[in-house]
Amino acid sequence: MKVSETTLGLFELIKEDWETHFKDWKQCGFRAVAVYRFGVWANSINYRIVRAVTMRLYWFLYRWSRNFYGIELLYTAKIGRRFLIGHQGGIVIHPNAIFGDDCLIRQGVTVGDTGRGSDGKAPHMGNEVHIGAGAVIMGNIKIGSRVSIGPNAVVMANVPAESTAFGNPARIIKTPKPYLKEEKKEQSKDESAK
């Protein structure tokens, strides 16, 4: 899974994140994501002196965000567009984690490696992944697109797209597609009308 490449600049991405966070700049999740976006931008500056100064500012803001909001989101993680942090507190995202677009995480979420011998490999999330409060996602695993992970779930295995994972250890069920039922009803109405 790969984060979509974007041509949006720093301010366009931050504006998009602000809109995702209900246009409320006071939300801690928005501030943490804005600091993350600033860190990614600062690290991409070609001029070494300017990069050194902006990265120093980034590290100050990162520590402030981590210590005051309890959101640990390092600039080395790969985060897609419109990333929503629903509530603050106890959020740890591994520096090598990858999130697709339109993902949502809530308070108390840990996304990390398994520890010893894991070589720093972290989970890869697809697009539209929703992670419930207190969930733990560990290891070099892949979470497909349009997946919901329930509160307090412990996920240590791959989760296929359009599924739901819940429980400890996580059990995986396929998410029903309600729009398919509606399409079948419409098709049966059309056939009966003929």
What is the tally of helical segments? 4
User: What is the rounded Rg?
Assistant: 19 Å
Say which CATH homologous superfamily is assigned: Hexapeptide repeat proteins
Beta content comes to 15-25%
For the biggest β-sheet, the strand order reads 3-6-9-12-14-15
Q: Helices and strands, in N-to-C order? A: HHHEEEEEEEEEEEEEEEH
- Average pLDDT figure: 90
Number of strands: 15
Kindly state the percentage of residues in helix.
25-40%
- Give start-end ranges of low-pLDDT stretches: none
Report the structural category.
Answer: alpha/beta
What shape does the CA trace take?
A: globular
Tell me the CATH architecture: 3 Solenoid
Assigned CATH class? Mainly Beta
Can you tell me the CATH topology?
UDP N-Acetylglucosamine Acyltransferase, domain 1
Number of spatially distinct domains: 1
Description:
- The chain is globular.
- The protein has one domain: 3 Solenoid (UDP N-Acetylglucosamine Acyltransferase, domain 1), CATH 2.160.10.10.
- The mean pLDDT is 90.
- With 194 residues, the protein is α/β, with parallel strands linked by helices.
- It is built from 4 helices and 15 strands.
- A hairpin with a 4-residue loop joins strand 14 and strand 15 (171-174).
- Strands 3-6-9-12-14-15 form a 6-stranded mixed β-sheet. A 5-stranded parallel β-sheet has the order 1-4-7-10-13.
What's the arrangement of secondary structure elements?
Blueprint: H1 10-20, H2 28-43, H3 48-69, E1 71-73, E2 78-79, E3 84-85, E4 91-93, E5 98-99, E6 104-105, E7 110-112, E8 124-125, E9 130-131, E10 136-138, E11 142-143, E12 148-149, E13 154-155, E14 163-166, E15 171-174, H4 178-193
Parallel strand pairs: 1-4, 2-5, 3-6, 4-7, 6-9, 7-10, 8-11, 9-12, 10-13, 12-14
Antiparallel strand pairs: 14-15
Helix pairs in contact: 1-2, 2-3
